[in-house]
Amino acid sequence: MKNRILFVDDDKFILDTFRRTFRDMDITLCNSPIKALEMMREEAFDVVVSDYKMPKMDGVEFIRRASEINPDSVRIMLTGNADLEIAVRAVNEGSVFKFLQKPCDRKVLKKIVEQGIEKFNSLKELRNASEENYYKATHDSLTGLANRFLLQEKARDYIDNWNRYRKRFALFYMDLDKFKPVNDTYGHHIGDLVLKEVASRLLNTVRATDTVARLGGDEFVILAENVKSVDETDAMSKKIIKAVTAPIYTNNDLVLEVGVSIGISLYPEHAEDYKVLLEEADACVYKSKEKGGSAFTLGKCR
């Protein structure tokens, strides 16, 4: 896929030069900075080449707005001798990658644009690598759910929301019942299928604003924000149990069943610290197991 380049200049001769110089590239020509900004709102361009002096909007203002609309683009400015100081300042501030004095040689122009493309592609690779590394560091590799590190970050966000908007939240700590016999009898491969199916069912049970995490093994946690009453936690617990305990069908024609014991703690009623809140819910899991499993227990268990 070719890089997309936007050329902005009110001079028809300059635009025609762009067309001839870059005919083998994916280019878009525009004679108005205002129209160019509208185009950038509709589609992303990798490199933007613009003149400094244009009607209705100067190059510095155009570059500023362009960087707000598409901050990842690489921007190149064309300028005359009188505007040299402004162009140098724009480069030093980081809003412009490079500038070219007009009139400029076509070969030099092409070389600078190619450098801009290389810079964009290098930065894109770094962004993708950073996003991938962040995802790996914050998500469970088996189920794709949040891991304990991301869960802790989300809990901090929920605590902030309580402090600002008085939105309390509930922590549901879940431990699967009858999972070990399945894992021991059919092997880890089948056990992993069960864990992934449970993860999928939990995601389908919660709201978009809730967080589902796997702590490891057969332990899961849900953070449910804006919980207004105990009736809500009871109803959600029943939904979770119904979803998890439904038969699990595998490609091996196996029909498996697991249960889930749930411990619930409310913020700030049961703890004002995330770690303590988690420990409280964990203690309630054991109370639920004492009830025979596939049950839930709310707070005050330690």
Describe this entry's structure for a reader:
- The chain has 302 residues and is an alpha/beta fold.
- It has two domains: 4-137, Rossmann fold; 148-298, Alpha-Beta Plaits, CATH 3.30.70.
- It has helices spanning 12-21, 33-42, 59-69, 84-93, 106-138, 148-165, 179-186, 188-205, 230-245, 274-290, and strands at 4-8, 26-30, 47-51, 74-79, 98-101, 169-177, 211-216, 219-225, 248-249, 255-256, 259-267, 296-298.
- The strands form three sheets. A five-stranded parallel sheet has the order 2-1-3-4-5, with helices on both faces.
- The termini are far apart.
- The model has no long low-confidence stretch (mean pLDDT 90).
Cα end-to-end separation? 59 Å
Estimate the helix proportion, in percent. 40-55%
CATH H level of the largest domain: which superfamily? Reverse transcriptase/Diguanylate cyclase domain
Strand share of the residues? Answer: 15-25%
The number of domains is 2
Reading off the top of the CATH hierarchy, the class of the largest domain is best stated as Alpha Beta
Using DSSP, what is the number of strands? 12
Which class best fits the helix and strand makeup? alpha/beta
Do you know the CATH topology of the largest domain? Alpha-Beta Plaits
Q: What shape does the CA trace take?
A: elongated
Write the element-wise H/E pattern from the N-terminal end onward. EHEHEHEHEHHEHHEEHEEEHE
Largest sheet: 5 strands, parallel
